[in-house]
């Protein structure tokens, strides 16, 4: 795997960044604060944003995988950072606003979750497009136990993913669910043994990266619109994007290759 060049400020402090896959076309971000179980401090989330920005403009990268360690994807936001904040500071500084960067990336993002994905860690995973879980993964929103509520999408994305009753239960009790429960409820799409999780997530990234990056972005935009729009409006957007693929070389190449019974060679244009 090709190690990613360092960004302008020198080495990343809280994350490891490289490219993976046989063609080095999968961006790879590993959260790396092992002593703090990958607690999501402000610096870490800013670095994740920088790495995503770099992958977003990298023409070779077709998908991105975000993972943590075997023990923890991310055990939550950094509480020591938050402990003494006031309402005025939070509201005035729009606290946690830049966390949203993960959900605005145009390229598909896969979360590979081993161990704990709690609080902000669960919210980070839910900002990704696909979640794969290791067998020992645990998901939860324990903010209520600290006298607060989820603040980076936990009450919104979790409810859309698993439905009202389970979301309410998790948010109101702070109870965790395991990988099997997460799959049953629709929070994750696949479960793998701990040691196979990251390679499988990268494989999924390679499958995605093999298609047209341009058209993949359209597909992602269309699916995400399902959470924002009425059915009629969503179908209208889908139709517009579907028609838009006919303005691309890749759509022509894909259909021509199919008719000629050969493999398509997409140029991302």
Name its key features.
four-stranded mixed β-sheet, 269 residues, seven-stranded mixed β-sheet, Lyase 2-enoyl-coa Hydratase, Chain  A, domain 2, globular, 2-enoyl-CoA Hydratase, Chain A, domain 1, alpha/beta, 2 domains
Describe the protein's topology:
Layout: E1 2-3, E2 15-20, E3 26-31, H1 42-57, E4 63-67, E5 72-74, H2 79-82, H3 87-92, H4 101-104, E6 109-113, E7 116-118, H5 120-127, E8 130-134, E9 138-140, H6 157-162, H7 164-173, E10 177-178, H8 179-184, E11 190-192, H9 197-209, H10 213-225, H11 231-245, H12 249-259
Parallel strand pairs: 3-4, 4-6, 5-7, 6-8, 7-9, 8-11
Antiparallel strand pairs: 1-2, 2-3, 9-10
Helix pairs in contact: 10-11
What does this protein structure show overall?
By secondary structure, the protein is of the alpha/beta class. It has 2 domains: 15-210, Alpha-Beta Complex (2-enoyl-CoA Hydratase, Chain A, domain 1), CATH 3.90.226; 213-260, Lyase 2-enoyl-coa Hydratase, Chain  A, domain 2, CATH 1.10.12.10. The chain is built from 12 helices and 11 strands. It is globular and about 60 Å long. The mean pLDDT is 94.
């Amino acid at each position: 795997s090709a190690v990613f060049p360092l960004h302008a400020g020198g080495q990343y402090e809280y994350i490891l960044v490289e490219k993976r896959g046989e063609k080095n076309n999968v961006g790879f971000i590993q959260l790396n604060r092992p002593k703090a179980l990958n607690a999501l401090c402000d610096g870490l989330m800013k670095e994740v944003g920088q790495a995503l920005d770099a992958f977003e403009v990298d023409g070779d990268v077709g998908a991105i995988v975000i993972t943590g360690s075997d023990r923890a994807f991310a055990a939550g936001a950094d509480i020591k950072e938050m402990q003494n904040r006031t309402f005025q500071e939070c509201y005035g500084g729009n606290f946690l606003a830049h966390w949203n960067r993960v959900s605005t990336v145009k390229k598909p993002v896969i979360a590979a979750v081993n161990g704990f994905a709690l609080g902000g860690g669960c919210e980070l995973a839910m900002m990704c497009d696909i979640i794969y879980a290791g067998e020992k993964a645990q998901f939860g929103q324990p903010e209520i136990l600290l006298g607060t509520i989820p603040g980076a999408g936990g009450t919104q994305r979790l409810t859309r993913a698993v439905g009202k009753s389970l979301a309410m239960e998790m948010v109101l009790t702070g109870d965790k669910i395991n990988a099997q429960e997460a799959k049953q409820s629709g929070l994750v799409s696949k479960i793998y043994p701990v040691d196979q999780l990251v390679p499988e997530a990268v494989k999924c990234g390679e499958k995605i990266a093999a298609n047209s990056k341009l058209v993949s972005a359209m597909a992602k935009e269309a699916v995400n619109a399902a959470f924002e729009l009425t059915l009629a409006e969503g179908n209208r957007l889908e139709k517009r994007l579907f028609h838009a693929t006919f303005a691309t070389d890749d759509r022509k190449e894909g259909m021509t290759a199919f008719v000629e019974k050969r493999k398509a060679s997409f140029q991302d244009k």
